Amino acid sequence: MQVRHIYLKIEAVPNYSPVAPDDAEHHKHRLDCMRNMDHADATIPQSEVDRRSLDALVYREYLDAAYTVLNNTPLIAADINEPRVERRIPGTVIYTQPDERLYIHVLNGDNEPHSFHVHGLHYGIDSDGSWPFGVQEYDGPNRSDAICPGDQWCYVFDVREDTVGAWPFHDHHMHIEEVVKRGLFGGIVVRDPHCDKPGLEIPIFFHRLTAKVGAALFDSGSLNAGDLFDFTFNEEGTFEYYCRFHPMQGRVRVTAAGPLTATINILDTPARFELDDITVGVGAVVTWNHAGNQPHTVTERSGAGLESFAINGRTFVGNTPTIVAESGTRVRWYVFNLDLSMVWHNFHLHGQRWRWGNEWVDTRSLGPAESFVADTVVPPVILQPLPLECGCEPRDGHEGHDPMQGDENEDEHGSHGRPREEPETRASGSVAHAHTLHASMPGTSVGSPKPESKHEHSKDESDPYPGRSKKKCRKYQLQGDFLIHCHVEMHMMEGMAAVLRATQEVELSDEELEKICYQLPTVHAHQCPEVEHHPCGGDGEDSWELLEPSPIFVVHGALLNTGHVLLFSGAAERNYPLEARIWDPATKQIMPGVIPLPEDFFCSGHIFMADGRLLVVGGDTNGAGHTNNRCFIFTPDPVNPDSGTFAPAASMAHARWYPTALSLNDGRILAFSGGHPIAAEVEVFDGGTWTPVSGANRSFDELYPGMHLLPSGEIFYTRAGWAGATGTQTAYLTMTGAASGSWTDYGQQQFYDRQEGMSLLMIDTTVSPEHTRLYVFGGGVSGPPTARNNATGEVIEFSGGIAGSAWARIADMNFGRTNVNAVVLPTGKILIVGGHSNGQKWSPTPVLETETYDPATDTWTPGAPLNFPRQYHSVCILLPDGRILAAGGVAPGTADADQHSVELYSPGYLSLGARPAISNAPSAVAYANSFTIDTPQAADINAIVLIAPISVTHHTDAGQRYIKLPIDSRTATAVETTAPANGNIAPPGFYMLFVVDNQGVPSEARFVEIS
Question: Which residue from 299, 502, 555, 989 puts its CA 20 to 30 A from 110's CA?
Answer without folding.
Answer: 299
